[in-house]
Amino acid sequence: METVKIIDVTPRDGLQDASGYVPVSEKIALIEGLLKAGVRSVEVTAFVRPDWIPLLADADPLVDQLRHLDGEWIALVPNERGLKRAISAGIPAVTLVASASESHNKSNLNRSRVDTLAALARVTELAHQAGMQVKGAISTSFSCPFEGEIPTKDVLMVAEAYLRMGVDAIGIADTMGTANPAAVKERVKELNTVRGKVPLSLHLHDRFGWGLANVAMAYEYGVREYEVALAGLGGCPYAPGAAGNLDTEKLVEFFIAQKIFIPIDLNLLAATRVRLLSVLSRKLAAPVMDEN
Ligand code: ZN
Question: Fewer CB atoms inside 10 A, N or C side of the chain?
């Protein structure tokens, strides 16, 4: 039976920009809720400098508390230092990031694309030695807050660098939420010519309500992995004006309506969303961080 892989990124992309603090216990409840609903793959956090994204500063204790749960946990790592933390935390899969746009890459990661990709080759090697799965994600695959529309050849350049490193999957991300079906088709078709059997995933933000039209086009051209977030939460701290992620429930319903098998319980997903939104609505203050 035809199916697709749903990767929920709520705990990372959905919450990294949230206006209220979410305690670790509530993040665990969120991840448990997703798992119970049938979402097995969850991007649970990012191993980035805590002062860069304070809402993800709890990555180590969070992952530690997920050990007893049987899901496919993924963490975003920007560099070798992040990878080392991910390895000691015991996470089985990592997502690396480089931008198709040179200026977004510099703003997000503080270095050029070429330097980022050279460093990520080493990160991929180390991750593989540690037995981890590696996805190479390409942010600003459609447009960039500084450069506007991004040409497909730039996306292809980054994808080819990832493929040379031997990543296990590649992902294109519409960081700004401006993708449209024609642009999705162009990028997916180009990537299909180089990726062989390496899976391609699509990470959409949904600025104009075109998200599901983009998914329909991507599906038509063979994309079988989608990254989404509950309640369409999320943004990007380094992309001013970025829109929220494509909504997990909307995506699951969209596929179920087309008789594409998704073993996910929509009622349990809704209950998980309601609980998370009630925590966010309380706008909790973050505890003061230890300066040491
Ligand atoms: Zn995103």
Answer: C
